[in-house]
Amino acid sequence: MNDQTSRLPAIDAPPLSLLLLEARALAEWPRFRLQTMSLHDLPRGDDHAVMIIPGFGASDATTRPLRRALTRLGYTVCGWEQGRNLGMRPAVKNALALRLQKLHARHGKISLIGWSLGGVFARELARHHPESVRAVYSLGSPINGRPDANNMNVLFRIANRGRPVALDVDGFLRRRIAPPVPCIAIFSKRDGIVAWQCCMEESAPNTENIEVHGSHFGLVCNREVLRVLAERLPRLPPKIISTPTARATRRKNPTPAPE
Question: Is the alpha carbon torsion for 233, 237, 238, 244 positive or negative?
């Protein structure tokens, strides 16, 4: 353990058994379509705008089922329109900020939903443009703990032509503090990609952590996740208090979706 990583908690990547269970996402996707044929039991939306940012290696096509469900509930839902997510690059960062500003000018404050790495992007967008963001919802996103407690590093290296994943511990520790907007972290203890402890927000008046059941790859097509979003998206953002260590975070275990 080097001097940098010694400043991080001892959290391991999810075990191989959970990684292998990620294959169940193949069943979760079609099941989500069946489960969302009827949405009568979920709260209706208030028509405010929502942008969904996909995870690493994914694109707007991957988030389409969730966007369709939220649209049917009564939201103005859009994708990020940056193609496949291969990590943050200057061009993507600038284009995403511009897209957020344009959506804000047209619709008012935007709710950001980020799946996996997309949740990291959403939080940083909110950190730099809090005036444009209503709230951030992260789905299995590596936002806390340690940045190497995941099973995605191999794919990152492939996408970056074999270069090792650089650990910017100072930057990571700074980003661990939630941006000054409501931040709701949704996580699963059965996540086979990112250690669930790393998917939780630090306790603060503007944060909430909610446990659901399911795979990492299935979080974007998970009926429990949809219910959490449907229940919280219409709420007015709470008053933000700049005390990042206050213990106001709640953890909830929703009823599992029917098999």
Answer: positive
Query: Where are the extended beta strands (E) located within 3-98?
Result: 49-53, 76-79
Residue 2's pLDDT is 52
Residues 6+ apart with CB under 8 A from 159: 56, 57, 86, 87
Tell me the pLDDT tens digit for each residue of 119-159: 999 999 999 999 999 999 999 999 999 998 999 876 666 65
- Side-chain-facing half-sphere of 253: CA atoms under 13 Å: 1
Helices (H) and strands (E) in the chain, counts: 8, 7
The CB density around residue 102, as the number of other CB atoms within 10 Å, is: 11
Specify which residues 210 forms β-bridges with: 186, 252
Give bridge partners of residue 156 from the DSSP assignment: none
Q: Which domains are seen in the chain, by residue range?
A: 32-235 (3.40.50.1820)
What are the residue ranges in the chain where pLDDT is below 70?
1-5, 154-166, 236-259
Taking CA atoms, 184 is separated from 30, 102, 141, 208, in Å, by 26, 24, 11, 5
